[in-house]
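Handout, section 4.2: multi-component inputs.
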Amino acid sequence: MTNHWNDLQYTDCALIMGANPAENHPISFRWLTKAREKGAKIVSVDPRYTRSSAMSDVYAPLRSGTDIAFLAGMINYAIDNNLIHKEYVAKYTNASFILKDSYEFNDGLFSGYDEAKRIYDKTKWAFETDEEGKPVKDLTLEHPRSVFQMMRKHYSRYTIDKIVETTGTPKEDFLKVCEAFCSTGKVGKSGVIMYAMGITQHTVGSQNVRAMAMLQLLLGNVGVPGGGLAAMRGESNVQGSTDFALLYGDLPGYVGVPKATVPEHATLAGYNEKETPKTGYWSNKPKFMVSMLKAWYGPNATKENEFCYQYLPKGNKNYSHINLFNAMYNKGIDGLFLFGTNPVVGGPNAGKEKESLANLKWLVAVDLWETESSAFWKKEAGADPNKIATEVFLLPASASFEKEGSVSNSSRWMQYRWKAIDSRGEAKADLEIIHEFATRIKALYKNENSPIARPINALYWNFGEGSHPDIDLVCKEINGYDLTTGKLLPGFGKLMDDGTTSSGNWIYSGFYPEEGKNRAKNRDAKTGGPNFLNWSYAWPMNRRIIYNRASADPQGAPWSKDKEVIHWDALQSKWVGNDVPDFVVDKAPSDPGGQNPYIMLKDGVAGIFAGLNEGPFPEHYEPFESPISNVFSKQNLNPAVQIFEGDFNLKGDNKDFPIVATTYRVSEHWQSGSMTRNQEWLSELVGHMFVEISEELAKEKGIKNKDKVIVTSARGEVEAYAMVTKRFKPYKIKGKKVHQIGMPWHFGYKGYATGDSANHLTPHIGDANTTIPEYKAFLCDVRRKG
Ligand SMILES: Nc1nc2c(c(=O)[nH]1)N[C@H]1C(S)=C(S)[C@@H](COP(=O)(O)OP(=O)(O)OC[C@H]3O[C@@H](n4cnc5c(=O)[nH]c(N)nc54)[C@H](O)[C@@H]3O)O[C@H]1N2
Ligand SMILES: Nc1nc2c(c(=O)[nH]1)N[C@H]1C(S)=C(S)[C@@H](COP(=O)(O)OP(=O)(O)OC[C@H]3O[C@@H](n4cnc5c(=O)[nH]c(N)nc54)[C@H](O)[C@@H]3O)O[C@H]1N2
Ligand SMILES: [Mo]
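Output:
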């Protein structure tokens, strides 16, 4: 989140799109309720009338997978009705930049497309620059090739008629959403967009988010209280996990992994040269990289050996979930660790994921329970154990309340948790399991000097003796040290690229600035003002609202007193306010760069125009499986997504599978269900797999409420109880009636409440930037059982 949970109470309008926080992020609703008591409006845009919709002032349905068309319409509405924050847009975004002639857009494709490789040459999407290499601007935003005018032209194709033909949203509902939310463009008002998996789990997931960011920038809603983009994260520590390199393309702190496919990455100097922008805060990247290498390899990392840079694996592929399972499916992987994950229920096209596991030589599962995944080889899983050679190890893990450590929530708050009870039986904390692996593997290779042994021997693993790692030492290593004095660092501003500092993750540097002061343990909610500065620790530098320089005008005065965060105090010559300034604290508005709030970005301004893999402006493409051909261009599918061929990813036709389907969560279950289907009382509350079907579809198919039905897709079928409901309604799409249904994905064959996993139906295809699977829009058919 750019802002934080408690900040939701300051909003004037919350647009909830692709999320159902009343059920999935219930604490957020506490703050939304407060906002509503003060007169704020809540808007819900969802294919299904959810419990969040029930709490909203305005609701609009839309067909799954059509959010870009909807948001493009909102962008048009804001501009056409003069509701945008023009000075913010001109000064704080790249809307004023002039595009080179090489940028073009034609019938769904941007310039630079290589059809055979399905990738773009992004150099075609460049800005005009002056003699110093700086972008040429037109602050009036009137130049025909300015980003602003090119964006207008791009979205002028999105007429209201075409939008509603695609989304199926009734026109009056669409206009009500526009009216409610775009009113926050007014100075002194702020609106927040709350999103989660309904937006991201699409072949256009990243561009869905970009479209939201563009709308927020146009309305001047970024950097202010009650504004921003609320990316509501999922599992309790998914924010922390991504910060610490859970995703295959990142090292800790979002430093990109070196790649074998980039020749410059062959050396550390080459990597730094290629990956470090000349301006903006990322110009410090070599300090982050070298300090991380010092944390990992300690005294073994020296200037002479490139700080052990060569020990970092340099991959040459996409290592996302889908790609890894594809490699397993093709017998390309011998062994797998499942550390707290259950892909046989939660993975896309889960039937194929289960088959893939059988191609492994060994599998280690670290979990609280035996799950559908670690038991994939058993008869109860429908497998023939005689035919499966995979050796499976199950390591019992301690649950969250049985161990100490921190989790980072969506607010970027690192919050410490203390152990409540001891683990039972042989269960161990994940950290302890990793610690034992590391120490034992190091012992195993101690006397070897092979290419495999060298990085293991060089690894500096210094968390105490015995099987219990000292977690305090882990915390301090993350924060980092001044290696010349041995003292903890006060923050990442002190990191060096010469080997004299260490930090395991630069964005967290500063949470543990001195002995005995682990700020993740802070629990003072009374002092610290409206942003709760003394509760836990928010990265970066305990800053609660990022981009908060944008809450002030170019001269440093708040745009509005009601929405003030920081302002320039001329007497003290510094930025002051109720948050840690997201700016150099003594850089005056009149200094060079003093009016450029987006300090992480090269140009100091936010990107209305930004080069994702499928283009610089979000464009509507249909999902991999869709009931219609694209209304906006010849390109049906996102031209930059990777398509898996053959059995691994069968595609359904809209003649055989005419119904749009989506999947989602219920409050009573958690994810793949291991955590909740092993609890009697939760299993009792929602005990069966069900599918929500509109009254109209039920009538057409002769299905009654509670009937057993079979839902089929090109990949498989699931059995479920029909829940005939008013929450779904048929859409009118391109003049014809299109049905949509939805179902939870929490079920599997183990536990107290058993049922088919919805993922027998979902496809193996992902977003063009992140490869997140398209769980939220696919085609199916439904019939009564028997
Ligand atoms: N009780 C409970 N809470 C949870 C979880 C849980 O399993 N149970 N899981 C946690 C995790 S890991 C996560 S990631 C979050 C997820 O949080 P959410 O994203 O809120 O979860 P979902 O219910 O999967 O999807 C949200 C909504 O997206 C809608 N939707 C489907 N397709 C589209 C579309 O194309 N456009 C739009 N605008 N909406 C669409 C669905 O109808 C659904 O109401 O929840 C977290 N919280
Ligand atoms: N169709 C469909 N599929 C989806 C989604 C969807 O919306 N639709 N959502 C996707 C999303 S957002 C997510 S996040 C994934 C989740 O997919 P998974 O991560 O595979 O699902 P979980 O059930 O959260 O699995 C977590 C496992 O960790 C175990 N566990 C709990 N605590 C601990 C611990 O402290 N240590 C260890 N080692 N194990 C522990 C649990 O028992 C459980 O088996 O599913 C995805 N799948
Ligand atoms: Mo998630």
